[in-house]
Fold Lysozyme inhibitor LprI-like N-terminal domain-containing protein.
Amino acid sequence: MTPTKVAALLTFLATPFAGHAQDGPAFDCAKAESSAEKLVCDDPALAALDRRLADRFAAAMSVAKGLDAGANEAEDLLRATQRGWIKGRDECWKDPDLRVCVERQYLQREGQLVAQFMLEDPRETQEWFCGDNARSVTITTFDTELPAIRVEEGDSVYVGSLRSVDTPGDYFVAFWGAISFDGTTARIEDNYGEKAGCRIAG
């Protein structure tokens, strides 16, 4: 076979694959097992979300690899949390509306990655004082499709997202609690049910 024919054959073989990669999800649909994966393969909008999340994950991994200290641990943790997220997404078969659940899982995970690894410029960053003991927390918000939030308290960083587009200002932050904003004040409720008021510093 001449070099020209070889090149033509390779082009022919690559063309449908490229189209599938562009239109389908980032994973191989031939290996899809869960109802969530099969739905993503059949739904162009969810497939696009999957590709977008794969790009976010790659960007987060790049940030983790570039850390001056603890890069290996950060990479391992990122991979572990992604595996955990996949398991959580696949649990959507229990939800009455599979598609709504799957889409929410993707949007929440995207926001978590953006907030954790600062993959976008934030909407704003503000320092808040909460509770009688004047807990100081730095809160950063992001205009991802489902708005995301980053809470820094002491040496710890927590991330979360808007509960719903129907509840603006009402966020849930994993391992930290919930916070509801109302102008220059806010209310928080931690994972133990303790509530406190907050105000912007200054």
In short: The first helix runs from residue 3 to 23. DSSP finds five helices and eight strands in the chain.
